Please model this.
Amino acid sequence: MRFSRTAGLVLRQFYLLRGSPARTLPLFAWVTVDIVLWGFITRYLNTVASAGFNFVPALLGAVLLWDFFIRVMQGVTTAFFEDVWSRNFLNIFASPLKISEYVSALVASSIATSSVGLVVMLILATTIFGLSFLSYGALLIPFLMVLFLFGIALGVFAAGMVLRLGPASEWLIWPMPALLSPFAGVFYPVSTLPVWMQGVSRVLPPSYVFEGMRSIVLGRQFSETSLIVGVCLSTLYIWMAGIWFSRIYRHAVRTGLIARYSAESLS
Model:
């Protein structure tokens, strides 16, 4: 694996962003809308709810963490879709580029783009709505790490799905975070879910993050074991997503599907 090849692909993404405001604006526009919207919702709830409970760290903090997860996932898939939209796969994989170098470039691009969104969210939530991250303490870092790892895993899995099913399956990818959010317990405890949904929640790393966040906000004891479980699950999913993408890529090369990737489907 050569770092220069991965860096070249990342540099290509940088040039695409630099030369296109339409690509740059979404990096911070939608997170700004989410933080502003939910920020005013939490302010309103604080005025009508009973005294002693602050909705800002409970709800606005959850929105910030969930948006960060979404940006990480979409950072991977958007970098991948750039090659889909430009029909550039055959050119890329005709080179000596390894699949591990390509996936590493997707991850590095996601780190860069999601970092922009995270900084914007932190500035808005702190300066406008007074969200103090001191309430989370040092646990904020592992919380973000779990969401980051799972976002990368889901993004790589989604990219593999599109590589296998064709460009038309792109529209199966964007709703994924929304479909997972009820099971992850972003805005409510997992205990409120039906038993079968709680079973799904146990295999989703974000559920451990948001349960831990609520425990800290409510002044309850936080289980470090659950956070370790979240980290282990995220790491496992990254490994599985890497295997999934590699196998899909080998199948596309072996069957010649990659040469016909401009088609709407690759069945």
